[in-house]
Amino acid sequence: MPLTFNLKNTFFYLLLLFAFNINANNLGNCDFSTGKYLDELSSLDSINSIEININNYRKWTTNTLEAFISRNSSITSEYKKRFLGTVSVNYDFGKCIHDAKIRLHGDWKDHINFEEGGLLNQSVDVSLLNGSIANIIKFKLLLPATRRYENEIILTSMLRLLDFLSPRTSLVNVIINGVDSQMLFQEKTAKELLESMNRREGPLFEGDERFLFNNYRIQTSDTSHLDLENISLAKITNDNWASSNDATSVMALDSFSILQEAYMKYGRDFEDNYVLDWKILSLDNKKFIDKWAAYEILLFSTNSFHALRPHNRKFYFNALENGVEPIYFDGNPRDINTQWLRYIPSFHFYPYLESRHFSELLEQIRLITPKKLTKSTEGNNFKLTLKESEIILEKTIEKIIRLHEMHKKFLLNLENDKLDSFEKISPLENFQNNVRSSIPNSYIVKVQNGHMNHDEKKLLASICRIDNKGCDEQLLDFSMVGKLLERKKFLNIDYDSPLFIEPPKITRDPIISKSFLDGLINIEMTATAGAFFSEEKGELYINLNNINDWIIIRESNLENTSIILESNLVNAEKNNIGSRMNSFGVTGCLTFYNARFKATKIKANGQFSICEDVINIVGSDGIINNLEILNASADGLDVDFSNIEITKLSVFNAKNDCSDFSKGIYKIESAIFKNCGDKGVSVGEQSTFNASLIEIINSNVGISSKDSSKTYIDSLNAEDSQKCAEAFQKKQEFFGAILKISSLNCINQLYFDKNSILEIL
Predict the structure, then answer these.
(1) 419 is a domain residue
(2) Does the pLDDT value for residue 408 go beyond 60?
């Protein structure tokens, strides 16, 4: 018989018998247990000060001085070498010390300053090697004057409230090599930013500045830093992610082609302006056109249009939504608390801008109360008063209304303000001509359409001289795609002149769409999958007919609906899963995306499929009465970014985790998990998880709470589990975890690390 622990006062005795300390290299060195301060550590408000010390202080100082006195007007890449150092963060409740890589940051020399007494101070770019600050690993510390810090904090907060990807920003006390000052803390564009705003990790891009700001050898004191803007396209910034497997490589190439096309059109039609074609960026997706319209109207109304210069822009490709999203960066916002408009956009460059875009943005901003805006600004050194927030919101609304009136006048005079209608050469041809005239010895890389070999993990590519003097055929390994899209390097081949990449076109399998109940239920799926809805029974039947089949139910109301997923695959060959997601961003056989549940029932059989998850629920909320999953080749249930209650949950026969809950709020009444290859229940990434009764039979781990999660179980029965329960930190960007169990029925060990709390109450 398994032992039952229901201990109120003998917790430490239990730990002595059954607990082992898990050590990890990514925890960071804190003089307190991070699990005790999860809420405080996730907020920039808790930071008292940050101290940075460069290991090789003398070499760092020499490098900074040389950058400052160099003849170039900008800080060129040769001065942005990384130095090792330590970053100490002081809180009211203790201190954390992190190892880090640090380099100079900034295009212009205003990022280097001599403080009073001749002390040197500078903007820096920091990457922590262990631990995190407010769940952030990569960030910048900026001299406040370079970013108009009050406006930057306000604008980034407002953008996040409106669900635009925007970095967390705060004013903090900083000491760098003994120099004490206040600096602007701003997170960098990385997966932590995406996940903090409920997006999955995916392709990240920015304008490619390798030919700008004195970074290219043909530039002289007589040339402008933007002379080569018409051949400066985009590059990927998370190249390691892009090269991780064939699915991410294809997704990166696919989304990269969208941006290349948009930048080439800019070089032909909009040079020296603030325009990128929304239709290209959105893949003609109305939802994304609306998002781009709202974003750009807001930046113009807050005098932050500096962020719209193509070389300043950053992007995220949202695979589940199938479009490119903007990421705010370096808007240089001015006078956002006044009615002054610094720049009026040329509306004839915005053919997809509609009157309703202004009205819809106004509705969204009016939902932001002064209290909400004030609360959203993080940090101890700068806080808005309610009155200041009220004025900022009022003036922003006034300026949007003024821009709207100007747009109305433009529409009235549209016939007299048309763009030239003469036929133009294609953006690609125009780009090639510009490259020939600027850098005639360069090369164009062409990734061949449709020539993809997933088994050998190869793509066929050509490297052609821009002067049409021949091409070399090469095989591009998927693992090299990131390096190609970021550094513009091809394998180990060294070319004397730069490589440019022609927009690749990757052929993907077709998908089909279906709608039921007058659009209440919307489905996308592979062409070989099947879907049928019985209005009489309120049942949706879904069939997997191919091992690569998948289905998404998106933006759907599933109240009083039963969903039955069946696998028609009999003795199909199960290949090893090569990627967590496919090139469409899908991990589940059946994915619920932005769905609403109420009295919903789901039954799924993943027999012989090769999906990462049989059921994946993303960005959804509501109550599921009954959820049953059988036969998963990896995870049974995976829930992300959601607020879900499940009355009865059962998962049987999963090769990996039976259930996985991330970044959300979850409540389970009763659950049974049987034959789980790894964990019965995995709770992670800042989730709050409550369960009344959980029964687990045959698993590696009964329940796992990790990475800043809080898990509370009334009763846990774990039979034939090698570990009853564990609480620990796995990922660098998070902290310890909390796991509290009122009644535990299990004979094996409990595991926890130094930063986590595990209690049997």
Answers:
(1) no
(2) yes
- 526, amino acid identity: T
Q: Are strands 4-5 and 738-745 parallel, antiparallel or unpaired?
A: antiparallel
User: Comparing 118-132, 159-173, 506-520, 706-720, which segment has the lowest mean pLDDT?
Assistant: 506-520
Q: In this structure, are 136 and 187 located in the same domain?
A: yes
The domain boundary, picked from 623, 656, 689, lies at: 656
pTM (predicted TM-score): 0.90
Kindly tell me if the per-residue pLDDT of 12 is higher than 70.
no
pLDDT-derived band at 1, boundaries 50, 70, 90: very low
Give yes or no: residues 42 and 11 share one domain. no
The pLDDT > 70 percentage for the chain reads 89
Distance CA 671, CA 629 (A): 12
Chain center to CA of 23: 28
User: Are residues 409 and 556 located together in one domain of the fold?
Assistant: no
- Mean pLDDT, residues 206-211 taken together: 86
Per-position DSSP letters for 115-172, written without gaps between them: -TTS-EEE-EEEEESS--BTTBSEEEEE-GGGTTHHHHHHHHHHHHHTT-B---EEEE
Number of domains in the chain: 4
Nearest residue to 739 via CA among 696, 657, 684, 693: 684
Structure tokens at 631: 């036969």
Question: CA angle, corner 191, sides to 186 and 194, nearest 5?
Answer: 80
Q: What is the pLDDT of residue 173?
A: 94
Q: Name the residue with tokens 């064939």.
A: 246
Nearest to 558 by CA among 523, 521, 593: 521
Which residue type does 6 have? N
> Does residue 423 sit within a domain?
no
The set of long-range contacts for 576-582, using a CB threshold of 8 Å and a minimum separation of 24, is 577/610, 577/612, 577/633, 577/634, 578/245, 578/246, 578/247, 578/454, 579/244, 579/245, 579/246, 579/247, 579/248, 579/612, 580/612, 581/200, 581/247, 581/248, 581/319, 581/612, 582/247, 582/548, 582/550
- At residue 11, does pLDDT exceed 50? no
The sign of the CA dihedral 41, 390, 393, 307 is negative
Q: Over the stretch 245-285, which tens digit does the pLDDT of each residue have?
A: 888 888 899 899 999 999 999 989 887 789 999 999 999 88
40 plus 22 within the same structural domain: no
Over residues 326-350, the mean pLDDT reads: 91
Q: Which residues pair with 323 in a beta bridge?
A: 318
Domain assignment of residue 422, yes or no: no
Q: Do the beta carbons of residue 499 and residue 463 sit within 8 Å?
A: yes
User: 444 and 524 share a domain?
Assistant: no
List Cβ neighbours of 703 (8 Å cut-off, separation of 6 or more): 679, 680, 681, 682, 683, 694, 696, 711, 713, 716, 718, 724, 725, 726, 739, 741
Domain edge (last residue) among 362, 379, 414: 414
> Tell me, what's the pLDDT at 111?
83
Place of tokens 């029925």: 745
For residue 627, CA distances in Å to 7, 403, 617, 687, 750 come to 32, 50, 12, 20, 28
Band of residue 454 on the pLDDT scale cut at 50, 70, 90: low
Q: d(Cα 311, Cα 233) in Å, to the nearest integer?
A: 8
Structure tokens at 498: 């730069």
Which residue has better confidence, 13 or 683? 683
Nearest alpha-carbon partner for 138 in 204, 67, 76, 79: 204
How many whole angstroms separate alpha carbon 708 and alpha carbon 738?
7
297, part of any domain:
yes
pLDDT-based confidence at residue 219 (cuts at 50, 70, 90) = low
Nearest to 72 by CA among 106, 98, 97, 23: 106
